[in-house]
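Lab notebook, page 48
Experiment: co-folding of the full assembly
Goal: obtain a model of how the components sit together before planning crosslinking
Operator: M.T.
Materials (sequences as entered):
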Amino acid sequence: MPSRSTIGRCWQCNFDHAPDDAEQGLRRAIALDPDYPDPHINLAILLTATGRHAEASSEMRRAQFLDPASSILPPLLAYLHLMSRRYDDAYAEYRAAMLLRYGEGLHWDMMSAAIGASRWHDAARSLSAILGEPIGISRDARNPGAELGIHIHRLGRQLAANERNDVDPYTQACFFAQTRDADRAFAALDRAAIEQSMNLMFAFVDPRLDPIRDDPRFADRLDQFGLLR
Amino acid sequence: MALYREGRSLQKLPPPQRNCDRALELFEKSVTIEPRFLEAWSAGDIWTERTFYWRGLSRKMAIANARMKIDHALALDPAHAVAVNNRALLAM
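Observation: model returned without errors.
Model output:
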């Protein structure tokens, strides 16, 4: 098992890990060319990861105005909505991204958005796509969330049985956190650091990690990854 | 310029038709013909984008390629918005 310092170094050598410099650079790029959408998008990502959601939303709106036909915006916008806990908006954007025929990988985050919005039947559709088999929740189910939970735990067992799968370890960490399997969630977070998952920068705000946020190991990991603010 | 434009149009297509590998080939040809063609150097934003999605060793390679292209572009013009944006992205 890699040491704490190794995990921290792996993540921190990822990019320069200097968010203040990044923000300064992105604002300079915007000043140099106010009509160039990319720095607005990147600034929105950075602001979201640091919990400045209102400013991030403003930057994304500007990017959409500048490039309304952009094919990269829908999944990104969906993810940023998910990070800012706007689950209905996130789900709507994931649907838009699916119409653009983005890959199956989106189903994981789409499922999280649907669960956050208590859209159990929509979550079941995403889960069906992940499991590769139809998942049924009866229309008159008294507790559709609990019914879905049974299938979600089955997916958890599949993931746990095959750790060498293709699912991004950060996504796995979120999934295990949501299913209250803290040990596997932390192990997956460590794998995400070693694999230099870009999504790790969102750990500070990601609502899917809320169930393990009070665990002392979580603050420890944020410290290791240089994400404590 | 024609190679660059063709590359950009391939890069801008929606996901099923988008062909970033071919776009990069065209940008490389552009800078081979005209080494000071700033726009084609700044097209390293494909590599910058890949640093978000690729994993493991592929991601390290994407970061190295992105840095090389960005440094070239900034050497040609330190105030080029695309290169400044991409450099800032790698500072995250």
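Interpretation: Chain A touches chain B through 36 residues (CB under 8 Å).
Next step: discuss with group before ordering constructs.
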